Amino acid sequence: MTINWQLLMPELIIILTFILVAIFDLFNSIQKTVAAWLTIVGCAIALYVSIDMLQVGMEGTEFSNMIQVDKYSLFFNVIFLVSTILVVLISMNYLGRTDRRQGEYYLLILLATLGMMLMASGNELIVVFLGLELMSLSLYVLAGYFQRSMASSEAGMKYLLLGAFASGFFLYGIALIYGGAGTTSIPKIASAITVNATSPLLLSGMFLLVVGFGFKVALVPFHQWAPDVYEGAPTSIAAFISAGPKAAGFAAFLRIFLEALQNIQSEWIVVVTILAALTMTVGNLVAIAQRNIKRMLAYSSIAHAGYVLVGLAAANKDGISSAMFYLLIYCIMNIGAFGAVILARTEDGESLMISDYAGLGFKKPLLALFMTLMLLSLAGFPPTAGFVGKFYIFRSAVESGQIWLVIIGAINTAISAFYYLRVVVAMYMREPEEELDFHPYPSLLIVALTLAAIGVVLIGILPSYFLSPAQISTFL
Amino acid sequence: MLSLMIFIPLLGMLVVLFAIRREQEELAKRVTFIITLIPLLIAVFLFIDYDRSASGHQYEEDMMWIEAFNIRYHVGIDGLSVTLVLLTALLGPICVLASWKIDKGIKAYLALFLLLETGMIGFFCALDMFLFYVFFELTLLPMYFLIGIWGGERREYAAIKFFLYTLFGSVLMLIAMIAVYLKSGTDDVARTFDIPTLINLAKTPGHALADPTFQIWAFLGFFIGFAVKVPIFPFHTWLPDAHVEAPTAISVILAGILLKMGTYGLVRVNFAMLPEGMDFFCNGKGTWGNSLAILGFINIVYGSLCALAQTDFKKLVAYSSIGHMGFVLIGLAARNESGLTGAILQMFNHGVISAMLFLLVGVVYDRAHHREINGFGGLGSKMPIYTGITTLAFMASLGLPGLSGFVGEALSLLGAYSKFKVLTILSTAGIVVGAAYFLWTLQRVFLGELNPKYEAITEINGREIATLVPLGILTIVLGIWPSIAIDMFREAVSLLPLVQ
After folding, report:
1. B413 at the A interface (CB within 8 A)?
2. Predicted structure pTM score
3. Of A426, B189, B303, B373, which has the highest C-beta tally within 10 A?
4. Interface contacts A/B by beta carbons within 8 Å
């Protein structure tokens, strides 16, 4: 059997990078940044290759139909790799102050990225599960990376316990679906289901998958881990967890539900619609009550999962591409927002209370500008990318008749503006209560934030370049 | 031509932000003033060059923007928008002059102001629904910062309230907009956001957009979006707060332009594009059929009565704005030539007069640092010129014949009388109350014994006079010779789906 290695180039590059970083880290523990730079270069090459393959339109299956490389998975590769590059850029200065070895930090990030890529290209529930575990296990360790910090260790522990639960649900769901359909291959399930449409095994398997995905992408009511983990984990890792893995979860979620389970659409669409409405509403309402910016961003990212879910509830071609397009935008702006949080560092550590941001608008104009831009984009304000993304999602859902869900989503958008703006209000309209001594700007963080800002504005003003790939990359 | 006008302020914003150093405050103000003169010059040119007899849009520019959704960058002006573009461009330099005394973060202030101007001009020129919405939202943000950073005591509250109210309205508008877009075509027939095309489709019998039930729902979505902006009772509560806290120049823009965005949207979208929906709310039958006229009536009477009760000079002017926008509504509800002419004229006139009023409030506030109407008295002897200009503005606002305010209100009511007799008669009460609060204010502030606290108050200065004179001239000219304005939009009004 010959393997078409070309099809797996992005994954192979990541593996190669992983090996290089591992070897390098073994022999060199002095120059800490080299591991990071290797990671960035590796991801950048993989990104380039993915975009190239996307443009050429390279598609195919490999390993006896276990892996399905298509435009859909390649588009997600782009999302993951862009997120990873941005996260590594915001991590370098952030970790620079700790004297720990950093090799394993980047190794774990690379592993998690590989897991995500597997999830997006898995054509088989088992492969999706393997990808999910590869990603999750790396993330558990990363969440607890600051061993000496109680919060970080607690975050890692909590994430591990709840994540393991979710994986259990997920695996059980796969087992039941195997029982119902007699196969774990996604296309084969799709054709098997037409025969015995609503077997209870399939339905309960479907529900368990919803629970499993619900945990992984933090949908209400499976979201409780998210705020605690985001708050305790290193901020750069909170950014990472909130971006790529969420996109990966949705990549598999969309593919499994709209391809394998498309014939029981009428059954799951109700569940997904209710979850979407709940997730948006609870996420946004609880975010209002937060005083800690990392917790606020955690709830905001829960709410954003709700918006993406609206794309799944639309259950049409545009629904998928709008979810893909939105995830791309969401990853950029959310990492940008966390990056801005890292930027606001004082001698005592990070300023995490929203009240600490008082007066920053005039004291640290650049930081305030970045933060404002990212928050406005999260709030879905034109002409930023967040607006175009939401517009597309709402458009798809209206088209498929989910008008009430869209109305709930639109009202949620207005609610969310309230808490995003509260940070802006603090920065520009309040006087600081105590003089905080902020660090000077680290250069790489500025580079990352500038990239994110350019992305947010560029996609907002000229969305066509990013929209068209999303539109032609669906699997339906 | 139009793009130049829209984007020169944006370019100016970048210049102010990045090419001028923080210390060069004077330079920043001068540069901004010159930048805002450019759109004004273009607007004056458009005013002269505009072909008054031609129907349809002029100076159109049309190119593809977001191909996937057939969203175009399509701008152009017709009679409805040309006067409002002129008004916006005129208030630009006036407001820069009125902001001369701002001392905190002037660079950011001017940059945001220029961004606001781009949003406003763009909004009135946009002929693509999506573009229209983007510009609509684009004005929201700078306004929010301008109130929230440079406002008074409770600026934070006022800014957030303004922002959330407007955003709430506009997300509903967004849904209506998406619905209209999706109905405009099918998977085989390209859908469109193009406003002129949509207007034609909505008139085509049998087209999905022409369906009355659909139009009623879409009407509601758009209506709430615009109603918050106008503001129409009961969505008006943000307005007094925003006005009281906003700095003078920003109040001028708020009353002069932003409120007009709401009424302009009602004419452009709700009336022109959704005639069936409009018919449901204005046909004079039952509660629904009178609802728009009733809202107009409430705005007029409620706004005026609230104004009468105010002791804060600025709040009084703010509530009087609510009252005056009621005339636009009731004229619009009439759906005949006279009503529409009156409504559109009233938009322009109110823009000019309320701008004057807010500038005048700013003048006295800068000197006395309070706006309590009962705290003055006898200022007429110390500030004769100021008193004279204020009297002119008051008279114009209360609708004295011979000044511009009268023409618009009279035509609106005349148009409405043929459709809603009782409501129109009741609405005239608003004019009486209007006369009462303005004359009473005149008496309390300027007449009687001079309040000894203000022995040393200084007369209005040259810069302040310069902001008021062009507006004052306009109120007199348009009062005597309203056809210069009416000629601009006569053709456009005749193209609207009027009902005789």
Report:
1. no
2. 0.91
3. B303
4. 79
